[in-house]
């Protein structure tokens, strides 16, 4: 009641102010201007959010569909019913959350709304599609001869290997890539950044050109070279080839990071009694931690997703990596059992997704050749 | 603590000589300032002393031993950079302890010494922080502690105060001086700020274009500059300079004729400091064109037969206005004459 009265009085005062200002013709109408700015900001934000939502749909939807298929599809075919039901539940929920976010600035209201929406979505999904979810498509994780069961015979040279062999090979490839690239690129980047030597400029330009040059054109020579040196169809061969092709880019990136580390710090370390190597390890490297993490993540994921070179250079099924496993699975049973293909895809995507989630903080800090402020 | 000698020290870069023959002797425990404009080779000299650059020619001698080929880490030199160059990945304590890491000092002993040094420069409460959490003045103290913790033979300060604000600069000046006296460490301060050099150092080395112009106390540099460069660089507001011709006992400056005593002939430059000029009942006539109050004194600009001349008068308020005519006098001892071609000072004086 009291609040009401106050509001009326305030409104009257504001009105009186507005008329008097109009009469004076000099004082701007501050409340109206503030209102206009608020409306404009809210409109701008909603437009931006709507735009982002629309453009991210084509990216999110296929992944979402992949996950849905992997948990729902049964042998024989795939229905889009679950996908659309889920979308019909999730999309309005997201919209409502956005509206709440725009209307309520307080974090508590936002959180409560978020929790309520999550619970509603969970309950709705459980009742609408819960009965159709199952894990049968993931049976490839513990059974090896799954393709033979479905097709009676796999085309990929005899028996299908366990997915864990491919998983192990992929990890081996990705980790050794990361290790080689981190070691070589940090040392080379430091050297190029700090030392003047004959041909430095040409070297730098050469590295950029190498990166611009499509590595695919080298695939036949590389195949022949590996064959001659006896590294064809070995993990070591693929690791070396991939590292060689990727290195110039990472050397260049890390050189930029080293450029941003002031010389003073190194000089200071050396007058403090450190050798150049100690100064590098104790003082310079910690400065480019963000760059090193970013390079490590990119190198890892790049090797994890590699397909063309492993497809060409690895032949026997004991040497398969995840991308080859996925390829042969889809090659053999696409059109027969989408569920397993989708499940393998999900299994293949999860590690790189996790890596991104955990390192996202560092990746967003990285600007090429710079250092955070 | 060490006695430092530089003989004919040179550093040649690909394009030019940064240091073109420096001779200098610094007594044990002295506080020396190297003063000069940017690019005069003062920082390069410092880097050669620290062992980061190696000289193209000449000798660096610590206590009678040539150290040219001794590596930076073995010279036991402490250095404070203009940027402080603290290690951002380490805490303040780790920063201060860093130099002891490479000496055979036990961890507990190293920490004791680091804390002792931290107390000396008054950063004891900050030891757990990171450099990024400190203000400029605090970072400066940390850098000083790090340079001092290993008890260096020689302390090098590369424009240590130029990143601080005015009041902090004032207090750090006295602070650095106090610490230097307390430890008795031979110290070289590189600066382009004459106030810093004159207030902190026992002796000042003025450098220009890779050479030493003059070595002396602040008073010597101010009163008896050896060269035109030193006369121009030392003193604020800057000295009045007049192109002049000396002939048989007279000096012709613009439209004025002054009487000349001493050996001087041909094209010379006459220098008179603004504070040497006084308004008196007799002297060179001049008309005031501008008055700039500077606090305790007023700087006037005036136009006379010698050309444009600036002079100082004590007092907060301007006693002369624009357009006032007055007579300016100076004592012959305070007039400086330089050879125009060589820049060397001549043993001659003028009077109005």
Structural overview:
The complex is a heterodimer of chains A (373) and B (352). Chain A is an all-alpha fold. Helix content of chain A is 75%, strand content 0%. Chain A has helices at 2-24, 30-72, 81-103, 107-128, 146-151, 163-194, 200-212, 219-229, 235-259, 263-271, 276-287, 289-304, 308-313, 322-333, 338-365. Chain B has 352 residues and is of the alpha+beta class. Chain B starts with a strand and ends with a strand. Chain B is built from 8 helices and 22 strands. In chain B, the strands form 4 sheets. A 7-stranded antiparallel beta sheet of chain B has the order 21-20-14-11-12-13-22, with no helix packed on it. In chain B, strands 6-7-8-3-9-10 form a 6-stranded mixed beta sheet, with helices on both faces. In chain B, a hairpin with a 4-residue loop joins strand 1 (4-12) and strand 2. The interface between A and B is medium-sized, with 18 and 26 residues.
């Amino acid at each position: 009641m009291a609040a009401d009265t106050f509001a009326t009085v305030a409104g009257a005062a504001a009105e009186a102010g507005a008329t008097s200002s109009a009469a004076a013709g000099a004082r701007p109408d501050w409340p109206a201007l503030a209102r206009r700015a608020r409306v404009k900001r809210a409109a701008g934000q909603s437009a931006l959010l709507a735009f982002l939502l629309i453009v991210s749909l084509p990216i999110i939807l296929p992944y979402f569909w992949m996950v849905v298929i992997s948990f729902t599809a049964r042998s024989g075919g795939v229905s889009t019913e679950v996908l659309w039901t889920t979308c019909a539940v999730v999309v309005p929920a997201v919209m409502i959350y956005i509206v709440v976010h725009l209307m309520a600035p307080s974090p508590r209201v936002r959180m409560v709304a978020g929790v309520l929406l999550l619970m509603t979505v969970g309950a709705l999904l459980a009742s609408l599609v819960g009965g159709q979810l199952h894990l049968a498509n993931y049976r490839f994780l513990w059974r090896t001869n799954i393709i033979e069961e479905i097709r009676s015979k796999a085309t990929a040279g005899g028996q299908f290997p366990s997915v864990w062999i491919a998983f192990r090979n992929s990890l081996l490839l990705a980790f050794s890539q990361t290790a080689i690239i981190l070691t070589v690129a940090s040392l080379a980047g430091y050297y190029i950044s700090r030392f003047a030597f004959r041909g430095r400029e040409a070297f730098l330009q050469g590295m950029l050109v190498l990166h611009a040059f499509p590595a695919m054109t080298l695939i036949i020579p590389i195949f022949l070279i590996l064959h001659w040196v006896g590294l064809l169809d070995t993990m070591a061969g693929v690791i070396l080839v991939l590292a060689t092709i990727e290195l110039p880019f990472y050397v260049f990136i890390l050189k930029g990071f080293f450029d941003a580390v002031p010389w003073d710090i190194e000089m200071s370390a050396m007058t403090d009694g450190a050798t150049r190597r100690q100064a590098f390890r104790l003082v310079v490297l910690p400065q480019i931690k963000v760059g090193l993490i970013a390079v490590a993540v990119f190198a890892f994921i790049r090797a994890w997703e590699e397909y063309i070179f492993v497809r060409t250079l690895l032949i026997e099924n004991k040497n398969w990596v995840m991308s080859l496993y996925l390829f042969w699975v889809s090659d053999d049973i696409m059109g027969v059992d989408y569920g397993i293909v989708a499940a393998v895809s999900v299994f293949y995507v999860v590690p790189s997704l996790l890596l991104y989630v955990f390192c996202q903080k560092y990746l967003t800090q990285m600007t090429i050749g710079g250092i955070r402020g | 603590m060490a006695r430092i000698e530089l003989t004919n020290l040179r550093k040649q870069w690909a394009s030019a000589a940064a240091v073109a023959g420096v001779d200098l002797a610094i007594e044990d425990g002295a506080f020396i300032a190297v003063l000069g404009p940017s690019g005069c080779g003062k920082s390069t000299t410092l880097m050669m002393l620290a062992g980061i650059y190696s000289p193209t020619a000449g000798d660096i001698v610590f206590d009678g031993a040539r150290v040219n080929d001794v590596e930076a880490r073995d010279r036991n030199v402490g250095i404070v950079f203009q940027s402080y160059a603290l290690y951002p990945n380490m805490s303040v304590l780790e920063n201060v302890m860093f130099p002891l890491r490479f000496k055979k000092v036990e961890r507990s002993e190293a920490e004791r010494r680091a804390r002792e040094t931290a107390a000396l420069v008054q950063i004891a409460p900050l030891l757990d922080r990171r450099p990024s959490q400190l203000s400029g003045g605090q970072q400066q103290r940390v850098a000083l502690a790090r340079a001092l913790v290993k008890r260096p033979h020689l302390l090098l300060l590369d424009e240590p105060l130029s990143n601080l604000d005015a009041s902090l600069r004032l207090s750090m000046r006295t602070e650095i001086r106090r610490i230097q006296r307390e430890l008795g460490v031979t110290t070289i301060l590189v600066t382009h700020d004459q106030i810093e050099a004159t207030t902190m150092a026992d002796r000042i080395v003025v450098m220009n274009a890779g050479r030493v112009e003059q070595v002396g106390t602040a008073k010597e540099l101010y009163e008896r500059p050896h060269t035109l460069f030193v006369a121009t660089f030392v003193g604020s507001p800057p000295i009045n300079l007049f192109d002049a011709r000396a002939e048989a006992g007279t000096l012709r400056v613009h439209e004025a004729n002054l009487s000349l005593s001493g050996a001087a002939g041909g094209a010379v430059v006459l220098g008179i400091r603004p504070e040497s000029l006084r308004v008196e009942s007799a002297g060179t006539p001049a008309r005031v064109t501008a008055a700039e109050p500077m606090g305790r004194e007023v700087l006037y600009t005036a136009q006379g037969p010698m050309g444009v001349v600036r002079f100082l008068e004590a007092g907060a308020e301007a006693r002369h206005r624009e357009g006032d005519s007055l007579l300016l006098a100076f004592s012959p001892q305070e007039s400086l004459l330089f050879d125009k071609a060589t820049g060397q000072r001549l043993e001659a004086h003028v009077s109005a």
